[in-house]
């Protein structure tokens, strides 16, 4: 653990990502406390519409006269919750599928991976838009659409990792000692492939946030009464370039959030990958 922390501390890009993600998570958790105007994020204030950044509204106001900074903070809660639930659900589906398909060599293994490849054959964003459009715009439907299009990525990763180690000596020794298939999978294979899963999860959160923002931009995400970064950018289009601050704030938030998770993921990959790891 000490060596891992030292390697992470020496990785400037990973530290930068952590410095972005950490405050973002805190801002999302404490949004009701940090937001300058937490009670009027969905209330019309016609006299305050489209005001530029000022002391009273640090990031300006939107078309409803709401404080953009407040909506941005509450939007962080929506975006991170959506990404967290989606990635968690995709892990719960994709990891077991990949483990079972990778460990066994039978018709079920082939069927599971052919199903995953059917989903992977279509560009993920296109499939997510199609599912969300069919189900209708809502937060729950956006989570479902993203989950159904993301689980194959984890299934394919876990399948490949499981296949690469299932004939290792420690696996064969466990089988020779009478360990059941599920015991071998859960106690021997899963811990051995945990590192790539962790890295893929960190990077996947960033990708999920970007895709969720795309759904929100197209009106296929949470309802208009729910602050969400993609929808905020969509609403700002008709007021550009005069109200430039309207689109700038959520755009920068999406950029920094995706960048932060990607940097953390890259740092974890360099630290956890035994081929690149160096404790010296």
UniProtKB/TrEMBL annotation:
CDD domains, per database record: TM_PBP2
SUPFAM superfamilies recorded: MetI-like (SSF161098)
Source species of the chain: Azospirillum himalayense
UniProt keyword list: Cell membrane, Membrane, Peptide transport, Protein transport, Transmembrane, Transmembrane helix, Transport
Protein name (Swiss-Prot/TrEMBL): ABC transporter permease
Main location: membrane
Domain of life, per lineage: Bacteria
Record-annotated ABC transmembrane type-1 domain positions: 76-265
Keyword Cell cycle: no
InterPro entries (alphabetical): BP-dependent_transpt_permease (IPR050366), MetI-like (IPR000515), MetI-like_sf (IPR035906), OppC_N (IPR025966)
PANTHER family per the UniProt record, alphabetical: D,D-DIPEPTIDE TRANSPORT SYSTEM PERMEASE PROTEIN DDPC-RELATED (PTHR43386:SF1), OLIGOPEPTIDE TRANSPORT SYSTEM PERMEASE PROTEIN APPC (PTHR43386)
Pfam family, one: BPD_transp_1
Transmembrane feature ranges: 12-35, 80-103, 115-136, 171-191, 197-222, 243-264
